[in-house]
Amino acid sequence: MKIIDTISELENQLQGYRHKGETIGLVPTMGALHQGHASLVERCVADNKISIVSLFVNPTQFNNKEDLKHYPRTPEKDHELLERLGVDYVFSPSVEEMYPEEDQRVFDFGQLDKVMEGEFRPGHFNGVAQIVSKLFDIVKPDNAYFGEKDFQQLAIVKDMVRQLQMPVNIIGMPIVRESSGLAMSSRNQRLSEEQKKNASEVYKVLNESKLMIDKFIPYELINYVSESINKVSGLKVEYFQIVDGDNLQPVTSWSDSDYIVGCIALFCGEVRLIDNIRYK
User: Fold this and answer.
1) 174-194 per-position pLDDT tens digit
2) What residues act catalytically?
3) With contact defined as beta carbons under 8 Å apart, do 187 and 271 qualify?
4) What angle do CA 43, 49, 51 make, to 5 degrees?
């Protein structure tokens, strides 16, 4: 496994593989890797001749400077895990390497980025599109892998690829959960054991809510889920929305779409967590 920190070196390394027509896979990450990331990496290694994982905490997607400051960074542990998983290249650039000058591009995602995360984290998805498009330009992967925990991000990346006509196949991978049901996240490292126990109630409530779609219309189920989670010590729901899984717009009836997903963001103490569940 080679660890590379400059764009020019990575491009030089990959040039020969492209000429040979070797498949290249990319897993973009912000580091602090866990088993959720490992599932993406394993698939990437299995699918492609050459596998690349980027480790870069991207400042342009943080609308909260404190969140950026406290985001966990564990490069040595990350490198050990990736070596065990058989990764060929790790790309760990500096902020200056990725942004030698300010990226002033503004993307238009229509309504995709106006709801949920977009509403509560203004500018977040524009920053995601900036960094992911840069990585795709540098690596030129055949396949790129993203977790479905970041459900809205996955939709944004797919739309960005469509808009920019990038020849990359975007592959979404299922949420990986701890034994308690808590969705794996780098941010979980900031939770105490007590907080993890409380946060695991989120998935229990979401699972219970799947059994209630015959009794409740979406609006009523939103209230039920939000109220149930807010009763748990230390948890505070920021939003819970039930949306069409393709266009991310809220549904008012279960007959509005054949693909319906519930997406939640909440605070456990000072740590912000997200999760989702498919209803249809």
Assistant:
1) 999 999 999 999 999 999 999
2) 37
3) yes
4) 55
